[in-house]
Write a structure and sequence with these properties.
6-stranded parallel β-sheet, 3-stranded mixed β-sheet, alpha/beta, globular, N-(1-d-carboxylethyl)-l-norvaline Dehydrogenase, domain 2, Rossmann fold
């Protein structure tokens, strides 16, 4: 752990301040922690200064003297690149909370890097999107040594409403594997919602008649209604973008193939998200995969 003898205030370097990382950094700063924030595009991190975070130009500057490093970046290669840039100022014993969705294969080089640098490593992807992130109500899926859990919990209890420890060996991938399983279900619901509403439009059925038909029954669910409303209103400000969803579907299908499991629905969903991205919807909410139901 970095030297912090002069203060009991925990210092946290947040690397990656997109939709999720920014919300997490803001909650940590508002809770009184010493937060340093870095993002590849600095302008996306700048608003955090108003909440008391120190915005830095480089990952190395962010981690210098930090007790904890929290990574929330797109994928494994992006995480590894940022941590390699930070390496000159990483102190042995610093706690690294790897909270991005990277998949089990990409986790292996991250774990090796942590061991080489003498870092305490916890793999902790999260469940939730923009709204729960802003409210500090994410679910943290964590794997790491018991000796690290108290320190990790000081951060998890601020950014999340619940922490589920699923393993003692971060490098074993238990948390990352569970995240892919959960995301497989998320993608199934998003894709099914968009395709069903697309079919309704094509057949001349009022989509609200569909929602009324399933209301209150076993086929009804809050996520169906939330994504349907985004599609029907055209309000597609992202909580989880089409491009990010496509990346996660790639991780799911790759992990499934390596495990000898056929994931036909995930492969089909990946194709829908690819088409939506090509149509220009990559930066919109994943609900915009609805547009893949139509040409052009």
């Amino acid at each position: 752990m970095a030297d912090n003898n002069t203060s009991d205030t925990l210092s946290v370097a947040v690397l990656g301040t997109g939709i999720m990382g920014a919300a997490m950094a803001r909650n940590l700063a508002r809770a009184g922690l010493d937060v340093r924030a870095w993002n590849r595009t600095r302008a996306r991190a700048e608003p955090l200064a108003a909440d008391g975070a120190r915005v830095t130009d480089t990952p190395a500057e962010a981690v210098d003297g930090a007790d904890v490093v929290l990574t929330m970046l797109l994928d494994g290669p992006a995480v590894l690149d940022a941590m390699r840039q930070a390496a000159p100022h990483l102190a042995a014993g610093t706690l690294w909370l790897q909270m991005s969705t990277v998949g089990p294969a990409a986790l292996e080089p991250l774990a090796r890097f942590a061991a080489e640098q003498g870092l305490g490593f916890v793999d902790a992807p999260v469940l939730g999107t923009k709204a729960p992130a802003e409210k500090g109500q994410l679910t943290v899926l964590a794997a790491g040594a018991p000796a690290l859990r108290e320190r990790a919990g000081r951060v998890f209890d601020i950014v999340g409403g619940r922490t589920r420890w699923v393993g003692e060996d971060a490098s074993g991938g238990a948390a990352s594997r569970l995240k892919l399983v959960v995301n497989s279900w998320v993608m199934t619901v998003i894709s099914g919602t968009g395709e069903t509403l697309g079919l309704a439009k094509g057949l001349g059925v009022d989509p609200r008649e569909f929602l009324g038909a399933v209301a209150g029954g076993s086929l009804d669910m809050p996520y169906l209604r939330m994504k349907s409303e985004m599609i029907l209103s055209g309000e597609l400000a992202p909580s989880f973008t089409v491009s990010a969803a496509r990346k996660d579907l790639r991780l799911i299908t790759e992990a499934a193939e390596a495990a000898g499991v056929r994931t036909d629905l995930a492969a089909a969903a990946g194709e829908r998200f690819r088409r939506a991205e090509e149509q220009g919807h990559g930066g919109e909410d994943g609900a915009a995969a609805y547009f893949a139901s139509f040409d052009g």
